[in-house]
Design a protein that fits this description.
Radius of gyration: 18 Å
CATH architecture of the largest domain: 3-Layer(aba) Sandwich
CATH topology of the largest domain: Peroxisomal Thiolase, Chain A, domain 1
Helix content: 25-40%
Number of domains: 2
Structural class: alpha/beta
Order of helices and strands: EEHHEHEHEHEHEEEEHEHHHEE
Number of strands: 13
Bound molecules: oxa(dethia)-CoA
Shape: globular
């Protein structure tokens, strides 16, 4: 048997306020028809004043711990994927650590925008397999509503807030993370970025995106990295029970499944309910599909994401 990082539990959290396309259309020049047809999005959750990346991340992590039947004191590593931290520093992972009542463990943030959860999962998996952690919480949590330009209809209708988390544990096992593949290509910075930062403008900035060009790269990159991750795991596309993709656009999900030759009913879709929650979207979709009974123990999952940077990645997991 091989030492692997097994998924012991999952959890997720959403802000209380749920916003429909029709509600958005009251203040933005858009329509429910356009948003549904071009993206598949129907609702998104928007964080209130008292809801932050760390508070949502804490709620998701606590649910994942409960699901795993573990006490927070058993955790020795917290990795948070986010591009919308509560503070520029310290890492929001340390806020979550304190909220969970953990006095001492390794805790840090990973920033790879929408691919952040795949990056964070891979880092945690490597630390577990390398022996420097035994039980880890990997979280994706975002409040993108705070960095949206609410006058840019080309972006503000696409995103939502939320958090998802998994608890990983070291196990001599057939189950767990079987492979991970990550990529970055910084030449595409200007296709998806935030126009501010501590070291340049001294401000947080707003999200800017050339959506059509991002779309074009997404389908090609996602299909190719899924093939790489499957090869590394020694599996074929036919072995996949569920694709758990980054939820950016329903059309990207359908096109990626088609390019892989997989039927659409093997794709977990939550973009209609949550919109694009960046680093939170993969763990949020994973937890949703586990809790509603779609994903069962033993299933082979293909997690994938692509986002700003560009960054992209995939992991094959036996749940
Ligand atoms: O998470 C990171 C990865 N991000 C993504 O994967 C996003 C990838 N891109 C996309 O999902 C799509 O490109 C969008 C959903 C962003 C846009 O869809 P599109 O089919 O590429 O539309 P478009 O940007 O080419 O715009 C088509 C038309 C334009 O009007 P004209 O110039 O043809 O008259 C836009 O002005 O739709 C207009 N438009 C809108 N109309 C109503 C753009 N946004 C809106 C809107 N409501 N919200």
């Amino acid at each position: 048997m091989t030492m692997r990082s097994a998924i012991l539990g999952t959890g997720s959290a959403l802000p209380a306020r749920r916003v429909s396309n029709d509600e958005l259309a009251e203040t933005v020049d858009t329509s429910d028809e356009w948003i549904v047809e071009r993206t598949g999005i129907r609702f998104r959750h928007i964080a209130g004043e008292d809801e932050t990346t760390a508070s949502l991340g804490t709620a998701a992590a606590q649910k994942a711990l409960d699901d795993a039947g573990l006490d927070a004191g058993e955790i020795d590593l917290i990795v948070l994927a986010t591009s919308t931290p509560d503070q520029t520093f310290p890492a929001s992972a340390t806020i979550i650590q304190t909220n969970l009542g953990i006095d001492d463990c390794v805790a840090f943030d990973v920033q790879a925008v929408c691919s952040g959860f795949l990056y964070a999962l891979s880092v945690a998996d490597n630390m577990i397999r390398g022996g420097s952690a035994r039980k880890a919480i990997v979280i994706g949590s975002e409040t993108f509503s705070r960095i949206l330009d609410w006058e840019d209809r080309g972006t503000c209708v696409l995103f939502g807030d939320g958090a998802g988390a998994v608890v990983l544990g070291a196990e001599e096992s057939e189950r767990g993370i079987l492979s991970s593949k990550l990529h970055a290509d910084g030449r595409h910075n200007q296709l998806l970025y935030v126009d501010g930062g501590p070291s340049t403008t001294g401000t947080v900035g707003k999200l800017r995106m050339k959506g059509r060009e991002v779309f074009r790269h997404a389908v090609v990159n996602l299909a190719s990295v899924l093939h790489e991750a499957l090869d590394e795991a020694g599996l074929a596309t036919a072995d996949i029970d569920w694709i758990v993709p980054h939820q950016a656009n329903r059309r990207i999900l359908d096109a990626t499944a088609k390019k892989l030759g997989l039927p659409a009913d093997k794709v977990v879709i939550t973009v209609d309910q949550h919109a694009n929650t960046s680093a939170a979207s993969v763990p949020l979709a994973l937890d949703t599909a586990i809790r509603d009974g779609r994903i069962k123990r033993g299933d082979v999952l293909a997690l994938e994401a692509m986002g700003g940077g560009f960054t992209w990645g995939a992991s094959i997991v036996r749940y």
